[in-house]
Amino acid sequence: MRLVVVSNRLPLTLRGSPEGWVGEPSAGGLVTALGPVIERTGGLWIGWPGEGPERADLEHQTTLDRWERESGFVAVDLSRSLATRFYQGYPNQTLWPLFHQFPSLLEFSPRSWEAYVEANDRFRDAVVDRLQPGDLVWVHDYHLMLLPRLLREAVPDVAIGFFLHIPFPASEVFRILPHREELLLGVLGADYAAFQTHRHVSHFRSSVLRILGLSSNMDRLFLEGRVVQLEARPIGIAPESFMGLLESDRAVKAALQKLRRRFEGRRILLAVDRLDYTKGIPERLRAYGRLLARAPHLRGQSVLVQIAVPSRERIPRYRELKAQVDRLVGEINGQFGTPEWTPVVYIRRSVSRADLVALYAASDLGWVTPLRDGMNLVAKEYVACQKDAAGVLVLSEFAGAAAEMGEAVIVNPYDEERTAAAIERALALPHERRRERMAALHRRVTRNNAFAWAERFTGDLRRAARSRLHAGSSEPARLPLGEATSAFRACRNGVLLLAYDGTLVPLASRPSEASPPAELVSLLLHLGAEGRHRVAIVSGRSRVDFERWFGDVEGLWLAAEHGAVLRPPAGHEWSAIRPSPPEDWREHVLPVLEHYVDRTPGSFIEAKEYSLVWHYSMSDPEFGEWLANELV
Ligand code: ADQ
Fold first, then answer.
1. Average pLDDT over the chain, rounded to whole?
2. Which contacts qualify for 538-545: CB closer than 8 Å, 24 or more apart?
3. Which helix (DSSP H) or strand (DSSP E) does residue 232 occupy?
């Protein structure tokens, strides 16, 4: 089966230069993890190739054609204006802050939503154009949350998987989002949707329940007669592409030697991030200031190397962050620095893979403390480069990686004083303890690597799609309207059994609110008077409700309380299907139900002749369902 990866960016970005159009590796975690997988398995990668030329440009087009032919990289055609409105709009100014639990940074405009929809449509077109029977389509991340549904509508049988790289927020946060329903339904177009951690899966399920009213099991839900499988599949890195360099690359060896010489006798604390407000860079700098204040022995004996690649620079919040970090670095260096010692070495650009590997290997402590992160690959890269070494990984409890990397020193980055204390203790740990912890982490990172991750994902997706094809629909198929009406017209002596709630009237939260509209009553009157068919309404409703609504309608059978009492058309006399049961059960059951009403705000009891009903559809859905199970 061929794998078709779809992500916002292609692994290469095409840039104009004096020498013409050149492809440069794209930055970011996704490419680091998936690049080697596609290289190994073949297949297509569909995405945006970077900003194109202002006017039609033959060389640009020829390069893209060659990419598709030779590497399977397929460029999605977004106009310059759409690309800008899309990328800087809804994904990065609305979804990114909200999913990382920064609702106050959320910006929304209807225009940016339109661009989001339009871009997702363009991605759909590019995929549909290239699809072959049997392809597995793997859609990535928050830029393309509408795409699974768009593809399902265009090609109903195709196998579609979706992976969210960033966190899925708590439902109370998610529900803030304009167009929240469309996003959830978009993702649920997939056969298989996976997230970085179990917590993200459970947040997703809870949003689906609260916003779409769909309940789910731990690992699946049913929608429109299909199953959607849900899973936590933490992403890994390709460790060899780091360890391999460390073992044999000349440039890495030279860089390592230089670093050791330059920082001799000092503990190196390393931080590597995109310059993003979710990564906790100011909090880290302030915590380092506190560390130097509380541990004078570390002054002159430690250095924080902070590497930050600028990103999304056209968004004002990112420019503000850059200025804030510049200022904080200046403050700490000004306060603690000496002519021989600079406490913070700040590098604000991308560094080469060789330099990065050397830094990872040379550092005594990897300081990975995002305020919120889907996974965080830097944590794993640091560990990969610490084979047989004794560095300490300090990890934020708000990074997805914390769910897997229990041997790290886990901190709350918002608590700067305690973070500083934890780092002081970590640096003082005996060498053997640090080595043991690092060895355990190293085993984990090399085992759950990018290949294992991709293999599990595609295996799960294949199974999910196969079970959809074989199981068929679990819901009865909809009656084709034309066929049903002509069969009804042709029928002489039929029986029409009609349900009430959810069939003749829409479902309502309170039973008393679902009274029939006048048109419905006159339609039933008409059917009854015609006398061609027997017409019955069969429902859990009480005979009191039926009397009130349909008491005067001639020619109808009424079956109330699920058939416990029945009124034939002639005579309007109700009769019970059985002699009435002993009544003593009521006094035992009612107090039990009342106890549940007291415990469940929004729930209430409906008392009928033959039954008592506890209604909880207006209460908190998860809590209501849990208590309903308990009650049963
Ligand atoms: P990102 O937010 O981009 O990824 P991360 O997982 O840390 O975050 O990946 C960053 C990548 O960029 C790493 O591979 C790192 O080596 C590289 N990098 C960072 N700074 C660099 C520098 N100065 N020079 C060179 N390279 C640098 C998103 C989610 C994450 C999730 C990934 C993958 O936000 O939570 O882990 O996708 O799913």
1. 92
2. 538/497, 538/498, 538/499, 538/500, 538/562, 538/563, 539/499, 539/500, 539/501, 540/501, 540/611, 540/613, 541/500, 541/501, 541/511, 542/608, 542/609, 543/567, 543/574, 543/609, 545/511
3. strand 226-232
Give residue 492's identity as a one-letter amino acid code. R
Residue 32 Cβ < 6 Å to ligand 1: yes
Model pTM?
A: 0.84
Q: Where are the beta strands (DSSP E) in 64-133?
A: 73-75
Rounded CA separation 439/444 (Å)? 9
121 as an active site residue: the answer is no
CA of 330 to the centre of ligand 1 (A): 25
386 backbone dihedrals φ, ψ, rounded to 5°: -105, 30
**pLDDT digits over 492-508, tens only?**
888 999 999 989 998 88
Shortest-distance Cα residue to atom 35 of ligand 1:
374
- pLDDT digits 0-9 by tens, 257-293: 999 999 999 999 999 999 999 999 999 999 999 999 9
376 Cβ inside 6 Å of ligand 1: yes
For residue range 378-415, list pLDDT tens digits in order. Answer: 999 999 999 999 999 999 999 999 999 999 999 999 99
Is the confidence at residue 600, as pLDDT, over 90? no
CA distance 427 to 364: 8
Structure tokens at 591: 């107090």
Write down the catalytic residue from 140, 165, 203, 442. 165
CB within 8 A of 629, min separation 6: which ones?
none
pLDDT over 80 (residue 473): no
Strands (E), 457-508: 495-498
Task: Say how far apart CA 314 and CA 238 lie, in whole Å.
Answer: 31
- Interval between CA 76 and ligand 1 midpoint (Å): 23
pLDDT of 374 above 80: yes
Residue that wins the pLDDT comparison between 480 and 188: 188
Task: Decide: 350 in ligand 1 pocket, CB within 6 A.
Answer: yes
pLDDT tens-place string over residues 15-58: 888 888 998 887 666 776 677 667 777 789 999 999 888 888 89
**What does the pLDDT look like over 79-100, one tens digit per residue?**
999 999 998 899 999 999 999 9
Rg (CA), the chain: 31
274 CA to centre of ligand 1 in angstroms: 7
* DSSP three-state, residue 444: helix
CA–centroid distance, 539 to ligand 1, in Å, is 57
Known catalytic membership, residue 165: yes
Q: Is the pLDDT of residue 474 over 60?
A: no
User: Is the distance from the beta carbon of residue 384 to the nearest atom of ligand 1 less than 6 Å?
Assistant: no
* Mutation to probe ligand 1, out of 274, 306, 353 (largest number of atoms < 8 A from CB): 274
- Residue whose pair of structure tokens reads 């970090």 in the numeric block: 325
Q: Is the pLDDT of residue 476 over 70?
A: no
Compute the distance between CA of residue 192 and CA of residue 226 in angstroms, rounded to an integer. Answer: 11
Pocket probe mutation, ligand 1, options 346, 378, 404, 457, max atoms within 8 Å of Cβ: 378
